[in-house]
TrEMBL record:
Organism the protein comes from: Streptomyces populi
A Pfam family reported for this protein in Swiss-Prot or TrEMBL: LysR_substrate
UniProt-listed Gene3D superfamilies: Periplasmic binding protein-like II, Winged helix-like DNA-binding domain superfamily/Winged helix DNA-binding domain
Protein name: LysR family transcriptional regulator
Domain HTH lysR-type residue range list: 1-59
Amino acid sequence: MLERHELEAFLTLAEELHFGRSAERLHVSTARVSQIIAKLERRVGVPLFNRTSRRVELSPVGRRLYEETRPAWSRITDAFERAVDAGRGLTGLLRVAFTGPAAGQLLVGATRVFRDRHPDCDARIKEAHLPEVLPWLRSGEVDIALTCHPIHEEGIVMGPVLVREARMLAVPTGHPFARRATVSVEDLARVTVLQIPETLPESLREDRAPRRTPSGRPIALGPSAMTFNETLTLVGAGEGVFTVGAHTRRYFARPDVVYVPFEDAASVDWGLVWPADGATARIRAFSEAALDLAQAPASNA
C-alpha cells in the first residue's frame, strides 16, 4: 500500500520530470524525493523513471502507474476540497485562456460543467497565442490555461493530460512526403523542422522540434514563428516542416499544406496549466470539471 507522501512524491516527479522542481513543490529536499522514489522502485521491482545526466523520463511501468493513479488521487483531494468549499462557499470569477480552436471547444464544455457545479462562480474564456500563455499566467491576466503539453517550467503546475491526439507532420503540398501515407520520426533527419519561439519552455520546444531522431541522427532546425498560422504559412512557403496534432487537419485545412500521419511518434498532449502559487479552490474545481468532461464516454446520439 502506498503512503500518502510516497504517492505525492511519485505523482509530482511524474509531472515535473525534475527532482529539484519536485522538491520545491513538495517543500522537501531533493535527496528526500530521490530516497522516496528509490524506495518505491525497490518495492515495485522495476524502475519507475529512466534517469540520465540531462533528463528524467517515466518508464513504461511508471507511465502506466501515473495514468492509473493520478485521476483517483485527484478525485480524493478534490473531494476533500469540495467538502471545505461547501463549508465556506465557492464563489468568484475564473479567467481561462486557451490556444487553438479545438482547445476552445473543449474549454467551452468544461466551463458549462464548472458553472453547473458551482453556480456562484463564473468563468470567462479568451484565446491566447502559445507564446502568450506563460506571461499571462505570471502577470495574473488569466488564472488557468488549456494548452499543449509538456510545459515543465518553474512555478507552473501542469495538470493531467485531457486529450491525446495522433501526431502529424505538416509539409508543403509539393514535398515528396506529401505523397506518402505515413512518415517516420527518423524521416525528420531528411528535412528542416520549424521551431516555436525561444521564450517557450525547452520541454515544449524539444517536443515540437527535436534536435535528434531516436537513433541519434541530427535534425536541421529552421526559423520560428510567433503564431500557428504564421508557422503554417512558412510550411506552405517551403521553409520547413512542423509537427502538429491530428486536429490541425480539420481546423487548419490549407491548399498549400498537407498533413501526413506519423507511424511511430508519441501523441500530442493537451491539458491545463496554472501558477503554482495560484492553486485556488476555483482552479481545482475547474480542473476537475475539465478532466471529468474529457473522460466522459462519447455520446452515440
